[in-house]
Amino acid sequence: MISEVTPRGYEFLFFSLFSIIGKTSSFIGPIVSSAIIDATPSGNASTPFYFLFALSLCSFLMLVFCVDLKKSRKEQEAFLKEKMERLAQSSDGSVSGLEK
Predict the structure, then answer these.
(1) What is the pLDDT of residues 23-32, one digit of tens each?
(2) 5-25 mean pLDDT
(3) Are 17 and 2 in contact (CB under 8 A)?
């Protein structure tokens, strides 16, 4: 689904962002899980998994109901068209590619 909302030719930008987010969450995740276990009165070690399940379910529902793939495809086309026009103008010498 991520590749469907990413403009063609710019996948590296989005996937590098997701890689950074993944590495950050792997660092913060154990800290949050430990805090949840410490905050639970019984000290139940399975409590973080319930939290993660609820978080995953909410994320899934938001992706299914809030991401409009048709609109994303139209925005991708407009973005790529604008980028190609900008490159064509800069190659003509009329507008510098650094100005916009």
Answers:
(1) 998 999 899 9
(2) 85
(3) no
Token digits for 34?
């430990």
Domain locations in the chain as residue ranges: 3-92
The whole-angstrom distance between residue 22's C-alpha and the CA centroid of its chain comes to 10
Q: Crossing angle for the helix pair 47-66 and 11-39, nearest 10 degrees?
A: 150
Cα angle value 77/72/14 (rounded, 5°): 90
Longest dimension (CA), the chain: 70
pLDDT tens figures, 47-86: 889 988 999 999 999 988 988 888 888 888 888 899 888 8
Instruction: Give CA torsion, residues 16, 18, 23, 26, to 10 deg.
Output: -170
Residues with Cβ < 8 Å from 40, sequence gap 6 or more? Answer: 47
What is the spatial distance between Cα 98 and Cα 62, in angstroms, rounded to a whole number? Answer: 37
pLDDT attached to residue 56: 92
